[in-house]
Amino acid sequence: MTRFLRRTVIRKPASKGQAMVEFAFVFPIFMVLLTAVIEYGFLMNANLASSYATRDASLVAAEAGNTKGADCAILKKIEDDINGPSDPRNITTVKIYLADPTTGAIGSKVNTYTRSTTPSLPCTLGGASFNLNYASPGSIGYDETTRCNIVNVSACGGLDTIGVQITYNYTWHTPLKSLLGFTGAGWTVVRSNAMEMEPVL
């Protein structure tokens, strides 16, 4: 008895076109997610840089005490700490203030420095002159020379807790805004830190 073997031909459907369609659906979503991760990284950098700058600046403020030019040293420290990819030109305001000892909240005594392209606050620190590109808005609310850094002095009531607040205007770095149809120029990052002044013994 002779058996005949039949060859069965299985035809596979053409998968090239299907793969292209799937790629066309997935690729835009992947690109949006990748752009969002990059944008979030830039935003986190601005947050961390601002937090780090306020911590450093409040430490400088605590050590500077009631010396003339203390605010210049604080502002210069902020300028130095906020660097790439964050831009110090995006700082809109810096507040140096007498903080509440327990909560660190801004008190009534505060100096507000607003960034300007035409600076009117030239500072001299350690014999080296530099422009901080900040303009004082008017009267001084927390005079450098009146800050108390002496323990148990009835004249000023003990050590001041000095605070520094930075307002940073974060702008978009990637095309995510146009991809998702968002509006607005970016986000406002506000960070602050307060520290008790170093006592003069």
Q: What would you say about this model in short?
A:
The strands form 2 sheets. This protein has a 5-stranded antiparallel β-sheet with strand order 5-2-1-6-7. A two-stranded antiparallel sheet has the order 3-4.
Describe this structure in words.
With 201 residues, the protein is an alpha+beta fold. Helices cover 33% and strands 25% of the residues. It has 3 helices and 7 strands. It has helices at residues 16-64, 70-81, 176-180; strands spanning 91-99, 106-115, 122-125, 128-131, 134-135, 161-171, 186-196. Strand 3 and strand 4 form a beta hairpin. The protein is elongated and about 120 Å long. The model has no long low-confidence stretch (mean pLDDT 83).
Query: How many domain units?
Result: 1
Using the CA coordinates, give the radius of gyration.
29 Å
Mean pLDDT: 83
Strand order, main sheet: write it out.
Answer: 5-2-1-6-7
Global structural class: alpha+beta
